[in-house]
Amino acid sequence: MPDALLIARGVEAGYGSRQVLFGVDFDINEGEAVALLGANGSGKSTLLNALSGFVRPRRGSIRLDGMELAGLPPHRTFRRGIVQVSQARDLFPEMSVDENLRLGAWTKRGDAARLRDRVYASFPRLFERRGQMVRLMSGGEQQMVAIGRALMSEPRVLLLDEPSGGLAPAFVSEIAAIVAALKRQRVTMVMVEQNLRLALSVADRILVLRDGAVAEQRGGNADEEEIVRQIYL
Ligand SMILES: Nc1ncnc2c1ncn2[C@@H]1O[C@H](COP(=O)(O)OP(=O)(O)O)[C@@H](O)[C@H]1O
Ligand SMILES: [Mg+2]
Fold it and tell me: Which ligand is nearest to the CA of 47?
């Protein structure tokens, strides 16, 4: 068995005097889709931010292909291929879809046109609306732009923070279809998701975060009620 693509060991992180993560360990294999579950406030976003460098880990190791990432700023982890779609999506609302996508390719300037064509092939709706200002789009469409922009850099590991969060039910199934398509393309993913059904429908493996550490690891065929107990009880 080759080493995992992304290996976290003893990751601790927090904000000021408030520690949130107390020693997180996990391995993510290349091509794997992992769902990160846990109650509200359990530290899921903090963990994604520690992986991408937006929160600086206090202790521990995060290795991608054997290279240490812990302590690197976000633009350096991005260059190594850790690309995050945050809960806030962080788009440029006054810019068009096309401009937002281009900005995702800042590490791949020569390839931007090819990468953009590929994103438009996967998201025909974005192609139709490529000239539209992002501010005028629905939440579900904005989530598509955010995911499309992340794909513009050909990530080694895609981090998705609640992709279905705050979306109308019709869009939740569309986001589920997008995530399923990414999985078929073997994009390595760590996805935080409150929608358990969505998470279980795509995940090869489930990690449950509790008290700032990984409390449980299950295969993607895990029983829904059992997982709910692990998360909330
Ligand atoms: N920027 C911040 N400053 C201070 N505390 C924060 C900040 N972001 C999150 N927290 C706190 O850290 C804990 C974990 O938050 P978070 O990682 O966002 O949880 P989750 O994503 O699982 O809901 C919560 O208690 C939250 O209030
Ligand atoms: Mg969160």
Answer: 1
Query: Ligand 2 centroid vs 117 CA: distance in angstroms?
Result: 31
CATH of domain 33-57+72-232: 3.40.50.300
Q: Which residues of 135-166 are buried (b: 16+ CB within 10 A; e: fewer)?
A: eebeebbbbbbbbbbbbbbbbbbbbbbbbbbe
Surface-to-core class of residue 86, CB atoms within 10 Å of its CB (0-12 exposed, 13-18 middle, 19+ buried)? middle
- Alpha-carbon distances, residue 193 vs 38, 151, 165, 173, 197 (angstroms): 9, 19, 8, 13, 9
Question: Any residues with CB less than 8 A from the CB of 86 and at least 6 apart, and which?
Answer: 45, 48, 54, 161
Torsion angle in degrees (nearest 10) through CA of 181, 147, 121, 35: -10
Backbone φ and ψ for 147, nearest 5 degrees, come out as -70, -40
Phi (first) and psi of residue 32, to 5 degrees = -90, 145
CA of 41 to the centre of ligand 1 (A): 6
pTM for the whole thing? Answer: 0.95
Cα(164)–Cα(155) distance, integer angstroms: 20
Over the stretch 8-65, which tens digit does the pLDDT of each residue have? 999 999 999 999 999 999 999 999 999 999 999 999 999 999 999 999 999 999 999 9
Q: Whose CA is nearest to atom 16 of ligand 1?
A: 43
